[in-house]
From TrEMBL, chain A:
It is a multi-pass membrane protein. Belongs to the ThrE exporter (TC 2.A.79) family. This is Threonine/Serine exporter ThrE domain-containing protein. The chain crosses the membrane at residues 6-25, 55-73, 85-107, 127-148.
Automatic annotation (TrEMBL), chain B:
It is a multi-pass membrane protein. Belongs to the ThrE exporter (TC 2.A.79) family. This is Threonine/serine exporter-like N-terminal domain-containing protein. It comes from the Bacteria. It is found in: Cell membrane.
Length: 154, 257
């Protein structure tokens, strides 16, 4: 019961950035609701999977590929290219904090000199960024890689 | 069906305009390629060959051994999904023969990028970054600090983008402003863990769209455009990091590492 409440709160907080960034990308007004639903769905699915003990990369891959297939359905239904909903929906899952920690670590490494702790932070965060980002984009591209293979979706 | 040389030139121009609009407004390379080819073929060309690079497209239309080639430079106009939707809608209507060639041309030149009200966007981005602070475990005070820090950064970002400043300078300054406002929260100890606000308030500057486009371009075979987008996104993150470090060394507050 407590888990369901946590998931609902997570979904609500994930819908806000999905809509906010969709507006920065100038997604048409009628599509904003899809971005909100998609963002809430994808992030809460990842939250649930991570709660079951899955690593963040695999949870991201599963969440983003489900979002890819959901986007495929919406895109066929509304005749709108897929990135319009899918990219805004996965924005809450982008590893921004990891990426910035890596870059700040690199700047610090230059000024403060080499240290093992700093290098550990840079390597771990950098690899996390790369793998999460790869999982995210690969999951979104999955429908067109597996099913459509070069044919246009809409 | 037969095409005169003039008609073929006109067709090529229409197709390249569509491709240019898509490329300028942040569509991935595969979408640019497919849509341009579909428009060209629907207008009567036998085939359309095109090469998409990071800042230009080159297109050749073929019809009975006659080739017409043209190049367009694609300056970045900022991501605008509404333009991408509109071009694709024109393409679908053309394929279902609801439009003629001159109507397509007229509609493509008439397209205007729609922009949301900037204050609404500032408000929503403020709420978005505050929601990120909730994911990092912040309480209500941190939520409010993040809201003001990221709204301030977003106002500056829009203002500088409006004046066509260099994106790297823009992102570094916006990161500086966000971190400085958030570090006020750390100095006066707003909330349980005010460092979270420093991490969450710069998340509006993550180049998410270029990064996702970069990986999906590379996955779909456009390696060189993918690498160009990746490098651009990495440079943007480095300039954000420099803005953050500059602010942290001025205020002597450390929220990262």
């Amino acid at each position: 019961m407590e888990l369901i409440a946590l998931i609902i709160i997570d979904a609500m907080f994930a819908a806000v950035p999905a809509v906010g960034f969709a507006m920065v990308f100038n997604v048409p007004k009628k599509m904003l609701i899809y971005c909100a639903v998609g963002g809430a769905f994808a992030h809460s699915l990842r939250f649930l999977l991570m709660d079951f003990g899955l690593h963040i990369e695999w949870a991201t891959l599963i969440a983003s590929s489900s979002m890819g297939f959901l986007g495929l359905y919406w895109s066929r239904k509304r005749l709108i290219p897929r990135p319009v909903f899918t990219v805004a929906s996965v924005i809450p899952m982008i590893p921004g904090s990891f990426a910035f920690t890596t870059m700040i670590g690199l700047v610090e490494l230059n000024t403060a000199g080499y240290s093992v702790e700093l290098m550990q932070i840079i390597t771990e965060n950098g690899l996390k960024t790369l793998f999460i980002l790869g999982a995210l984009s690969f999951g979104l591209a999955l429908p067109s890689i597996l099913i459509y293979r070069g044919r246009p979706i809409v | 069906m037969s095409l005169s040389h003039e008609q073929q030139t006109e067709l090529t121009r229409i197709a390249v305009t569509a491709g240019q609009i898509l490329h300028q407004h942040g569509a991935e390379s595969r979408l640019v390629e497919q849509t341009t080819q579909r428009i060209g073929v629907a207008l009567g060309a036998q085939s359309i060959e095109l090469s998409v690079s990071s800042d230009a497209i080159v297109i050749t239309s073929l019809f009975k051994g006659n080739c017409v080639t043209t190049t367009r430079r694609c300056y970045d106009r900022g991501i605008n999904m509404q333009m991408v939707c509109d071009v694709l809608r024109i393409c679908i209507m053309l394929e279902k023969s609801l439009l003629e060639a001159d109507q397509v041309k007229e509609r493509l030149t008439r397209l205007k990028p729609y922009k949301y009200n900037r204050w609404l966007v500032v408000f929503m981005i403020g709420l978005s970054c505050s929601s990120f602070s909730h994911f990092f475990g912040g309480d209500l005070a941190v939520y409010i600090t993040t809201f003001f820090a990221s709204s301030g950064a977003m106002i500056l970002r829009q203002e500088l983008a409006h004046r066509h400043h260099n994106p790297f300078v823009n992102f570094a300054l916006a990161a500086f402003v966000a971190t400085t406002i958030a570090s006020i929260g750390v100095i006066y100890e707003f909330g349980e863990n005010p460092q979270i606000a420093m991490a969450a308030s710069v998340l509006l500057l993550v180049p998410g769209f270029p990064l996702i486009n970069a990986v999906s371009d590379m996955l779909k075979g456009h390696i060189s455009t993918g690498i160009a987008r990746w490098v651009f996104a990495t440079l943007l993150s480095i300039s954000v990091a420099i803005g953050i470090v500059a602010s942290m060394s001025l205020t002597n507050v450390s929220g990262w590492l």
